[in-house]
């Protein structure tokens, strides 16, 4: 089964591996190499190495909900994947304690849909695609559960809300880089079918003189 991050008319246009690797390039060059980890570490109460590590892992996990077999077999949209990614990340990042909870809350918010029109539904098949798990584990360095650790959305959002209220700055300090990296990777890899924020992010990166931003087609 192909591990896909973006389908267009039933065809896989962007693989999960390509999406994560491209975004990690931005995380590394635009944030970590510019000492963003020092700022993040102060907010999280952790050292520089841990702060950088959690930032990489959070990005690698941000779309892990797309690994659901149901999504991969359907070959179309990934509705509520941020919520499913959040549930998986909570388990995968449990060893990081409160820092893992902050990172998971950022994953839940990475599509800016805290207020949703309908509650996420429990997938009929909770199993994750084994190929997709393998890719995410290799790129994140954490263990991914083989099935979605489902809990009631009301309870899940309630837990995330308490994390957001008590750690607002830390959540957004992780959310900003992963959102930029997510849209950057999408714009680079999807043959001009970039995300809604892709063009704006490209223009910002271009102004800052970041050469790698040239991967985004003109006229996006």
Please, could you describe this protein's structure?
The radius of gyration is 16 Å and the shape is globular. 57% of the residues lie in helices and 5% in strands. The chain has one domain: Orthogonal Bundle (Hypothetical protein af1432). Strands 1-2 form a two-stranded antiparallel ribbon. By secondary structure, it is mostly helical.
Topology of this protein?
Layout (H helix, E strand, L loop, with lengths): L3 E5 L2 E5 H16 L4 H9 L3 H14 L7 H6 L6 H12 L5 H11 L21 H11 L12 H14 L1 H22 L8 H10 L13
Antiparallel strand pairs: 1-2
Helix pairs in contact: 1-3, 1-7, 1-9, 2-3, 3-6, 5-6, 6-8, 6-9, 9-10
Residue share in β-strands: under 5%
Main β-sheet description: 2 strands, antiparallel
CATH fold assignment: Hypothetical protein af1432
* Name of the level-1 CATH class: Mainly Alpha
The helix-strand sequence is EEHHHHHHHHHH
Q: How many H/I helices?
A: 10
Radius of gyration: 16 Å
Low-pLDDT stretches: none
In total, how many beta strands? Answer: 2
Mean pLDDT equals 89
Which architecture would the CATH scheme give at its second level? Answer: Orthogonal Bundle
Q: What portion of residues is helical?
A: 55-70%
Write down the overall geometry. globular
| Sheet with most strands: strand arrangement | 1-2
The span between the termini is 30 Å
Count of structural domains = 1
**Structural class of the secondary elements?**
mainly alpha
